Amino acid sequence: MIGCHGLVWTGRFDAEGLRRAVSGTLDAGYELLEIPLLDPFGFDREAGRAVLTGSGLRVAASLGLPMGADSSTAEPEQIARAEDVLRRALEVVHDLGGQDLCGVLYGSLRKYPAPATPGGRQASQDVLRQVAVRAAELGVTLSLEVVNRYEANQFNTARTALEYLNEIGDPSIKVHLDTYHMNIEESDLFSPVLEAGDRIGYVHIGESHRGYLGTGTVAFDEFFRALHTIGFTGPITFESFSTAVVDEELSRSLAIWRNLWQDGDDLAKHANAFIRNKIRANETLAMH
Ligand code: MN
After folding, report:
1. How far apart are CA 199 and CA 196, in angstroms?
2. CB-CB contact of 176 with 144 (8 Å)
């Protein structure tokens, strides 16, 4: 299941933006559309259903907890808001017929000024433990994205994410790996995939500068060999950002200051072929 992130197409996810994202994603040859859901209360569920139902695309949603709803602060008001945000996001995903909610579901997407605290760690884990019960009822998989040190402080590597998940103790909550972040934090792109194995629920494919695949420093051959080795069958979604398409909140959180592409159609078609070629090459290994 190969997917494309919505910000390749649009910075707005109203009916018009969603239509653009759906047609672009289908034209480029993908099977899944990932919608950024940073404000699940502001998302128009009716419009979403109207555009996405029957589109033929599977839907996933991703988010980082908004400022003021950061469960890892261990502040009671923020913890309560974080739980509300995650529960609403689950409802939206379910409404859209989706099966995946991923991203930084354990904190905000920002550079933290200090290390994670034991209280914040436990608070964010407690929220996820509760929310996972609802996710299971709705048939939605929660996958926690491992991101780099400038965007989260709970964990920044697959191994430490697994420790965090083991403390929660609910095997239905998965790990979400992203090659852009792995390229910054991991020692290589093979062993973390093997270590996480069947705990991986979702994958983002991003280049080291978040532009065209194959023009940066990410060791994609290593990474796709590892996915093949563990027999990964979950969503693999292309993620790329440019100043050509802007979401005021997400683009700023991710520090998208440079324009690495203009034409989302060309970018997405190129990435779809790039990803499928890597997967196909690994499938032929059985003949060696
Ligand atoms: Mn990502």
Report:
1. 5
2. yes
CA of 288 to the centre of ligand 1 (A): 33
CA of 110 to the centre of ligand 1 (A): 13
* 178 Cα to the center of ligand 1, angstroms: 5
In this structure, what token pair is assigned to residue 192? 């973390």
Radius of gyration of the chain (CA): 18
Residue 120 has pLDDT above 90, yes or no: yes
Is 145 one of the catalytic residues? yes
Is 239 an annotated catalytic residue?
A: yes
Q: Which pLDDT tens digit goes with each residue over 151-201?
A: 999 999 999 999 999 999 999 999 999 999 999 999 999 999 999 999 999
What's the angle, vertex CA 34, arms to CA 280 and CA 196, rounded to 5? 60
List of E strands, 76-173: 100-108, 141-145
pTM given for the model:
0.97
Euclidean distance between CA atoms 7 and 206, whole angstroms: 13
| Whole-angstrom distance, CA of residue 175 vs CA of residue 134 | 18
User: Please, are residues 91 and 59 in contact by the beta-carbon 8 Å criterion?
Assistant: no
Closest CA to 103 of 51, 56, 141: 141
Candidates 145, 151, 186, 207; catalytic one: 145
Which residue in 34, 83, 186, 239 is the catalytic one?
239
